[in-house]
């Protein structure tokens, strides 16, 4: 998918929609969990870091912000690495970086050093795992892709439910330094997930067909032609506005509860409530998005999810007790899960599978600045006003605005895409392959009808999992 890569899925390969794909899905589940839950889970250490280094809320919020900014801002770099080296080697190196950053952070003596280690190094490592895992997941699944994306996205709330209370326990038992060290060891599991990402190879064809396919594929590090797509531009603008406020409530809800006078453990439990609801919201939304009458209109379901999330923030801003925050976390978990399950499914529906690798890198880069300034600006607002209500209101307005941009942009600025261009492209490629088959010796001829029948009779041979020297562990 996307620009041609070392272990790229060749154009003639049909996604298995199962088989080894379930192992790839499990790896994507774990990687997504670490990538999205980690920036929120480290927020349980913020109080200790404030006391240790004598800094403010906005200073500690930069840790989560830098983690997310690295995850987003290094998108094009990750795309180029994948397009050059392949998914598996990039993920193995990323797992080592992620672990190294947290282990090194446990020995830091200033908040700036933590920015560089837990923020930059760990963030880069998670980025080198996250994007390749999405690319591999979408190579292995086609018809079941919405469900697969929903299940993989469920890794975020599952890990949030576990990492948040685990971080609280580690902080209580070993302090923030011991907690960072143990979490760094846990991140080595990213390397195991990277080892699961085996490349796909098409069923054996004639040499002539293989040579033609190789000639048609030209190596590209990034495909900038996606900017010619109006739908991609609308998506990029809307997503950039969305992430300004999307990650703010999970980062500050624990501190909100502590500010109301509730114990640390009880406050951290709010993230577990949010995550528990999110666990079920993502797969269910994936199933709904996969329905025949819903899938063509996923972009509007995505817009509804963002509006739902924004209004939840606005309602949550009026919470004055623990019960109100708990209700907020339930509804935020539902809406947040819907957004998480749909965001990359919608992007793939807009740009298509062949440009997804480059498109996701460019989208993440566009979102990086918004992610970088989101939580810290909210922290500044909190330091200035001393009230969490304004933080949640601003976040809600930003997310609702992004939903309106997405929906209205697609209604008025984007012409409805037909699948004809993609179909014609595939038909032309098949026709060229058939012509090349006709030019082979008589004994090597294969009638196109027979080939089509063969592929129908043995679909399990499409997208076989193989290992090659460049991607073996």
UniProtKB/TrEMBL annotation:
One GO molecular-function entry:
lactate:proton symporter activity
Q: Which PROSITE patterns match?
A: MFS
Indicate yes or no for the key word Transmembrane helix. yes
Q: Keywords of this protein's UniProt record, alphabetized?
A: Cell membrane, Membrane, Symport, Transmembrane, Transmembrane helix, Transport
Annotated Basic and acidic residues bias: 420-463
The principal localisation class reads membrane
Q: Mind telling me which residue stretches traverse the membrane in this protein?
A: 20-39, 60-85, 97-130, 151-170, 176-197, 232-257, 269-291, 298-316, 322-344, 356-376, 388-414
- How is it placed in the membrane, per its record? Multi-pass membrane protein
- On the tree of life, the source organism's domain of life is Eukaryota
What the entry lists under InterPro entries is as follows:
MCT, MFS, MFS_dom, MFS_trans_sf, Proton-linked_MCT
CDD domains, from UniProt? MFS_MCT3_4
Q: Which family does it belong to?
A: Belongs to the major facilitator superfamily. Monocarboxylate porter (TC 2.A.1.13) family.
Q: Fetch the NCBIfam families from UniProt.
A: 2A0113
Full protein name? Solute carrier family 16 member 3
């Amino acid at each position: 998918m996307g620009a041609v890569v070392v272990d790229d899925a060749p154009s003639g390969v049909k996604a298995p929609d199962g088989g080894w794909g379930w192992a790839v899905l499990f790896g994507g589940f774990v990687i997504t969990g670490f990538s999205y839950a980690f920036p929120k889970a480290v927020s349980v250490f913020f109080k200790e870091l404030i006391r240790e280094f004598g800094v403010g809320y906005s200073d500690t919020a930069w840790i989560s912000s830098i983690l997310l900014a690295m995850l987003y801002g290094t998108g094009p770099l990750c795309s180029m690495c994948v397009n050059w080296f392949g998914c598996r080697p990039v993920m193995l190196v990323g797992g080592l970086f992620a672990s190294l950053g947290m282990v090194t952070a446990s020995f830091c003596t200033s908040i700036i050093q933590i920015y560089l280690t837990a923020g930059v190094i760990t963030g880069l490592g998670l980025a080198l795992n996250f994007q390749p895992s999405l690319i591999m997941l979408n190579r292995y699944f086609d018809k079941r892709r919405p469900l697969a994306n929903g299940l993989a996205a469920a890794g975020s709330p599952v890990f949030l439910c576990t990492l948040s209370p685990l971080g609280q326990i580690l902080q209580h038992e070993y302090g923030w330094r011991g907690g960072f060290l143990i979490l760094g060891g846990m991140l080595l599991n990213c390397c195991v997930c990277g080892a699961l990402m085996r490349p796909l190879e098409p069923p054996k064809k004639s040499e002539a067909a293989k040579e033609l396919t190789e000639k048609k594929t030209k190596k590209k590090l990034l495909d900038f032609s996606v900017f010619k797509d109006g739908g991609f531009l609308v998506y990029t603008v809307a997503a950039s506005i969305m992430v300004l406020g999307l990650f703010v409530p999970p980062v500050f809800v624990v501190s909100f509860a502590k500010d109301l006078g509730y114990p640390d453990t009880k406050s951290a439990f709010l993230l577990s409530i949010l995550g528990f609801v999110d666990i079920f919201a993502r797969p269910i939304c994936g199933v709904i998005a996969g329905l025949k009458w819903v899938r063509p209109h996923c972009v509007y379901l995505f817009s509804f999810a963002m509006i739902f999330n924004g209004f939840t923030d606005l309602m949550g801003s009026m919470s004055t007790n623990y019960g109100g925050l708990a209700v907020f976390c339930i509804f935020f978990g539902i809406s947040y899960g819907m957004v998480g399950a749909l965001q990359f499914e919608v992007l793939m529906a807009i740009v298509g599978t062949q440009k997804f690798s480059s498109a996701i890198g460019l989208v993440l880069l566009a979102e990086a600045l918004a992610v970088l300034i989101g939580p810290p600006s909210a922290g500044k607002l909190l330091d200035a006003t001393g009230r969490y209500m304004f933080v949640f209101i601003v976040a809600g307005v930003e997310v609702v605005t992004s939903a309106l941009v997405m929906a209205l942009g697609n209604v008025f600025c984007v012409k409805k895409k037909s699948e004809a261009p993609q179909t014609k492209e595939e038909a032309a490629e098949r026709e060229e392959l058939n012509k090349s088959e006709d030019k082979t010796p008589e004994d090597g001829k294969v009638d196109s009808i027979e080939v089509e029948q063969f592929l129908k009779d043995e679909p399990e041979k499409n997208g076989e999992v193989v290992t090659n020297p460049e991607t073996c562990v």
